[in-house]
Task: inverse folding
């Protein structure tokens, strides 16, 4: 009897204690980082603004599907992952009954804080769906425009730091052969310096899925930062380059297509969230 009454009293007291409420979206300020739950990705608040999307015609390494350059304007700030989604974060999704129970291979490189790889666009959408259910927040894959805007972080050069790149700045393959600290494999997501808005590895390590369907150029592209959800939707746009690609494929403007249901150790993703 004493044990039962003690349990009742404890439950009553617990119910009366204040519970930390999720931060309201109005509280977030540009540059601030936050997590909606302990297992959720860390997010960075990106400011509203505009930029020229795509590459100028005289940029070294440019491909025709990076043009024509056009101005994109974000009327509202948004949040985007500080890092690519990690194996630890993916495992939390599986443990929480999401991600279709799929356990992707780490290609024998290690798991933990390395970016989850061998995930398709469809797999990434399953993770986003779990985040939505868990948090009640509007998570999604970044639009192609959001990804480039956040990558550039106010810069206009091929890479956020300038026109050239070394293996001290990103994980990639040099034209003359593989070099750097992580040859033939991914690096942990917090390796290398973040860009001016606090995002890590926007160049190299893994190509990242975006929401957009593929189109060969930017003719009639959205100018409000939204995703292009028509055209070749069997293929989706990926951004950023990978551990396996050459420097020209890591540029801020470079875009690549990949079949939405395919998996590869070169591909991962980060998430975005409406504020």
Result:
């Amino acid at each position: 009897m004493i044990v039962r009454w003690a349990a009742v009293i404890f439950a009553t007291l617990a119910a009366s204690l204040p519970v930390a409420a999720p931060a309201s979206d109005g509280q977030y300020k540009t540059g601030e980082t936050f997590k909606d739950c302990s297992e959720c990705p860390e997010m960075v608040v990106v400011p509203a603004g505009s930029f020229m999307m795509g590459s100028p015609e005289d940029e070294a390494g440019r491909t025709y599907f990076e043009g024509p350059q056009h101005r994109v304007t974000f009327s509202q700030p948004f949040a985007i992952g500080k890092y690519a989604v990690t194996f630890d974060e993916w495992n939390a999704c599986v443990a929480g009954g999401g991600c279709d129970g799929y356990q992707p291979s780490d290609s024998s490189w290690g798991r933990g804080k390395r970016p989850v790889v061998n995930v398709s666009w469809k797999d990434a959408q399953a993770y986003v769906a779990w985040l939505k259910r868990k948090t009640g927040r509007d998570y999604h894959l970044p639009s192609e425009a959001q990804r480039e805007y956040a990558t550039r972080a106010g810069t206009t050069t091929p890479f956020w730091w300038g026109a050239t790149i070394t293996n001290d700045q990103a994980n990639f393959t040099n034209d003359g052969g593989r070099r750097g600290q992580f040859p033939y494999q991914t690096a942990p997501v917090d390796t290398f310096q973040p860009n001016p808005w606090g995002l890590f590895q926007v160049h190299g390590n893994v190509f990242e899925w975006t929401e957009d369907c593929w189109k060969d150029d930017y003719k009639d592209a959205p100018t409000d930062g939204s995703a292009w959800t028509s055209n070749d939707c069997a293929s989706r746009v990926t951004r950023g380059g990978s551990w396996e690609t050459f420097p020209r494929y890591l540029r801020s403007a470079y875009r690549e297509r990949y079949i939405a249901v395919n998996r590869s150790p070169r591909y991962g993703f980060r998430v975005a969230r409406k504020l």
Summary: The chain is about 15% helix and 15% strand. The chain has one domain: 33-274.
